[in-house]
Amino acid sequence: MDVVLYGLLASLLAGLSTGVGALPILFFRDVSDKLLDVMLGFAAGVMLAASSFSLIVPALELSNVWVVAIGFSFGALIIHMIDRFTPHIHLWKGAEGPKSKRFSGLMLMVLAIAIHNFPEGLAVGVSFGGGDLSRGLLVSLAIGLQNMPEGLAVAFPLVREGYSRSKALGIATLSGLVEPIGGLLGVALVSWTEPMLPWGLAFAAGAMVFVVSDEIIPESHRKGFEREATFGLIIGFLVMMVLDTYFG
Q1: Continuous H helices in the chain
Q2: What single DSSP character describes residue 90?
Q3: What pLDDT shows up at residue 106?
Q4: Domain that residue 188 falls in
């Protein structure tokens, strides 16, 4: 139960960092698209490194490559299916999934962010589930780091769309609160069923890599700052690699 509690609290704190990252919305009218794209690139780099060093490598140490490959593939496939069959709206890509008249535009936007953030909470929970607190803390730090620029990238476009600053900050903060749900699910599954740990690590890695490739990188390249975003990704990857090397 202690491990479950740690995983839940860590995923909650990682989710709340989205709101922390959005706090500049209260003090600045806007930030440049170039800066937002660099920050999104940084977030993508952190997620890719965390998926590689903090999830895939431990999974390979615990099991064979086929278990990891299958778990990774299922993680990507499940997020693809959720994205395909859940109605939602992205600020930059517009509506995706089936059409829905039941939900407001704001609710559909929140659903899009939830789809994006759920795998991150799952990764934190799974990392704690094996009982390795250092790995869990490292993954939660990685998710918290990448959530901060994402919070900023959510809040400022909302203000440009006409939302008040306080409402944009609230939406950005709430967008991270789906992560404790994923965290609780992940930590409960692998802590109560130990053989599931390598599967869970690989599944979380696949889900995160899918989100990076399908959502974050395309968004960071959409406004003509591809090279700047790429350097942001490299810096994010290196930062997470160093953190994993010294603290993992």
Answers
A1: 2-22, 33-49, 57-62, 65-85, 105-129, 133-160, 165-175, 179-192, 197-211, 217-220, 226-247
A2: E
A3: 61
A4: 2-23+32-247
CA distance 224 to 222: 6
Distance CA 231, CA 38 (A): 7
Closest of 12, 2, 3, 1 to residue 126, by C-alpha: 3
Report how many domains make up the chain. 1
Strand 94-96 with 88-90, pairing: antiparallel
Collapse the DSSP code of 94 into the 3-class scheme (helix H, G, I; strand E, B; otherwise coil) and give the result.
strand
Residue 89 makes CB contacts below 8 A (sequence gap 6+) with 95, 96, 105, 108, 109, 111, 112
Tens-place pLDDT, residues 72-128:
999 999 988 888 877 766 655 666 666 766 655 566 666 677 777 788 888 888 888
Show Cβ contacts of residue 5 under 8 Å, excluding neighbours closer than 6 positions.
none
145 residue type, one letter: L
> pLDDT tens for residues 120-139?
888 888 888 767 777 788 88
**Calpha distance 3→244 (Å, rounded):** 21
> CA–CA separation, 22 vs 163, rounded Å?
14
Contact 6, 128 (CB under 8 A): yes
Interior angle at CA 10, CA 31 and CA 127, nearest 5? 110
Burial status of residue 81 (CB atoms within 10 A of its CB: 0-12, 13-18, 19 or more): exposed
Query: Residue 233: pLDDT band by 50, 70, 90 thresholds?
Result: very high
